[in-house]
Amino acid sequence: MAVWDGKGLPPAAQRRVESAAASSLRSSLLSITANTGIESVGYRPVSEVMGSVVLSTYGAVMPSCGVYNQGYGSPFGMNQGLSGVRMGAGQQFYGGYEPYVDVINRGWTVAINRMLTESKAVGAHGVVGVKLTQARFEGGAIEFMAMGTAVRSTVVKDHHGRDIFTTHLDGQDVSKLLHHGWMPVRLIVEVTVAVRHDDYNTLNQGSMFAPNAELTGFSDLANSARSSARQSLRRHLKPKEEVGMIIDSLDSNIFRNEMGQGHSDHLCEVRVTGTTIAQSGQSETRMEPLSIIYLKSRKAGA
Question: Which of 63, 66, 173, 266 can bridge 169 by disulfide, Cβ–Cβ 3.0-4.6 Å?
Fold first, then answer.
């Protein structure tokens, strides 16, 4: 068996494409309701499609927040606003996690692009209901997987030369968008990491003797990471083509990282996903709402 060089379709995806081409059987990940919704606006499910990649993050993780003292209140104290937070993706970062963030974002890009390659091979015009999953291997490797349902327009053969659209929205939501003159364009994922040194005040507020009150340093950490992720997501918008974005999720993972003797940090990894939208300007997908719903069979004599 020839070794795949990482270009084009993976062997497993190639077999799925060939199997779909040789059979009239069509597969879908959509529910019955979502399937009905997407068909109501002139799209028919073709096949489920998937893209995945496994990347190593072992060499990309540099366990340092950039602060090696205990920070007895200043300048990295709990009441110093954002001064104790270092961002993993952006101009504020000093701690060395940026390579890790780059690997994570590259993993999602590759997984989505491979899903698009398979979608193109089955003749799709779009992919709806895309789900993103992530699995960690021992040793720092991570699998990134994007999976959705490829759909083909039954109304316009060349789809007006558009690129294949991708969206986390299911068939019902896509149909609502189209009915109102909007079109999903592409699914975007952005990951950022923020790190905060566990200084004296942080440790003191989190001790077993501390009252049940807000841990302001950790609040800063979480809020800064989410804000950075949303700002980074906005930078991906193409102003002339895309007029907005529908956010799907904003997932956070906060964990403690032990650097060494007397040195620990807390990290907040945030993943935000959304679908950009544009004005469709198409009328062929619009359908008039039903004014009368027949409760009985319309066959003569029934």
Answer: 173
Residue indicated by tokens 């501390």: 210
φ, ψ of residue 264 to 5 degrees: the values are: -135, 155
Q: Are 25 and 115 in contact (CB under 8 A)?
A: no
From CA 236, how far away is CA 270, in angstroms rounded?
17
CA distance 181 to 39: 17
Distance CA 45, CA 38 (A): 8
One digit per residue, the tens of pLDDT, for the chain of length 302 reads 567 777 778 888 888 888 878 877 788 999 999 999 999 999 999 999 999 999 987 766 655 555 544 433 333 333 333 335 555 544 344 446 778 888 899 999 999 999 999 999 999 999 999 999 999 888 779 999 999 999 998 887 665 556 899 999 999 999 999 988 899 999 999 988 888 878 777 777 778 887 888 888 888 888 888 888 888 888 888 888 888 899 998 998 888 877 777 777 888 889 999 999 998 766 544 555 556 666 666 555 54
List residues bridging with 197 in a β-sheet. 265
Cα dist from 265 to 33, 63, 70, 187, whole Å = 47, 9, 11, 32
The answer, yes or no, to whether the previous bond of 75 is cis (omega within 30 of 0) is: yes
DSSP SS3 for 159: helix
Q: Are 34 and 122 in contact (CB under 8 A)?
A: no
Which pTM does this prediction carry?
Answer: 0.78
pLDDT confidence of residue 248:
92
Q: How far apart are CA 23 and CA 32, in angstroms?
A: 22
Q: Can you tell me the distance from the alpha carbon of 278 to that of 88, in angstroms, rounded to the nearest whole number?
A: 30
Q: Are 185 and 278 in contact (CB under 8 A)?
A: yes
Q: How many other C-beta atoms lie within 10 A of the C-beta of residue 196?
A: 28
Separation CA 196–CA 287 (nearest Å):
53
